Amino acid sequence: MVLRLVTLSKMGDKIKVGDYLIVQRQKYTKLQKFNNLNTTLNLGKDQIELRLAENNPYCTTFHLVPKQERGKRVYTLDALSTPSEIRNLKELLIKESGNDNRNIVDDRQSQGLSTEEILKLRDECESSSEVIGKLVENSKSFATKTEYSQEKYLKRKEKKYFEYITIRRPTVRLLADIYWRLDPEKVLGVRFDTLSQLISYSGVCSVGNYLLYESGTNGLLPAAMLNSMGAETGAKLVHLHPGNVAQKQALFAMEFPAEQQARCLSVNIYSVLRHFYQDKVTDKGAEDVLKEAPETAQVNEEPAIAAQEDAAVNGSGKRKHDATDEGLTVGSESGEPEAKQTKLDKQKQTWELENEAAAGIMREKFDSLVIVAKEHPYSILKALLPFVKSSRPVVIFSTSREILTECYVDLKTEASVTYLRVISNWMRQYQILPNRTHPDVTMSGSGGYLLTGYTIGN
């Protein structure tokens, strides 16, 4: 069961300053913020100026035009009217082939051009096709290789000298691939196929309230859930995290509409739990509340909260995405020195207002719970399970099967969650080519494990 992760962007959108871009060069992809017209993208040793990409449609293919600068490989962009302008090297350069490679000796003497001559060719030739053509002409063994070996040779050289890039709008799938390729730990080991299963088992859709705890996935998990909720809906997401400021790079990159972005509340887990149970004291006695609260909520987290409050007061903990923080104090009625103190007070209240809004949703309870944590998830699960409605899905991710097995046994003992299952994904990628279809030589061994179940009403 795999859910197709979709994006809300339109293919007709134009590239503009301030956008997040996915730059693709053959199979390599990179996330880049188009900050201003002077933004430069680094692809290996190549520097690419992005200013000429402005106002071109997304998914446009650009030709890299070299600039005459000594000691630097700097390129500007020239948009292609159609990708068919990219020349097919196989048709151009493969004219005759050998039957086998048994007589070819790898003595590193087959290339007639020296390193200096190849570098000079790269500066003089107008396109990579010309450079590769010269390399083929001066190769002593190219004509005797089999067609398959010739194709591999051309692909290897094309990868090195390829002069085209495609700019695409970010999607959840592309972001998941980029983060996983850079370092799986950046997304806590959540592979893209496991991500789709997380969304499927949690039942995220356009209606309901959803609770997510994650301790550092660069915003990939909340971005995927918010994407599945859609733009014009009433669904809400409470995103819990353990730090002062949530990781939100993927959320920024997706560039959701403001209304959709506002439906995701990112709050510190300890801060919002304290806020929730303190408010409950007004309705019940303190002793009754402490008895009802799970052990995790009763743990003394004052140092973490104090650090968050100090960061908010001093401005160091200000969220990067809260561009309106400064605007909250612009309309001060008083032009006196008290306005500066008022500004600090209102900045301090930003996270408190978010806690209050999140606590309000927690009173209504949630339609599903998702936990993706570096820590052992069981104490977090015990603290958050009371906020989930009965007969609702609970999904926990971990890269360790043993950790989820412990949670499985404990939940079985408590009988608070039913239909418990520990599952894992087995994914294998294949190369599909004529007469040589086989699995990829290198692939990830595991995409982690999921513990799924449904809550039982009290």
From TrEMBL:
Pfam families: Gcd10p. Residues 337-347 have a biased composition (Basic and acidic residues). GO terms for biological process: tRNA methylation. Its main location: nucleus. Residues 310-347 are annotated as: Disordered. InterPro entries: SAM-dependent_MTases_sf (IPR029063), TRM6 (IPR017423). Keywords: Nucleus, tRNA processing. One of its GO terms (cellular component) is tRNA (m1A) methyltransferase complex. It is found in: Nucleus. Substrate-binding subunit of tRNA (adenine-N1-)-methyltransferase, which catalyzes the formation of N1-methyladenine at position 58 (m1A58) in initiator methionyl-tRNA. Heterotetramer. Belongs to the TRM6/GCD10 family. This is tRNA (adenine(58)-N(1))-methyltransferase non-catalytic subunit TRM6. It comes from Anopheles dirus.
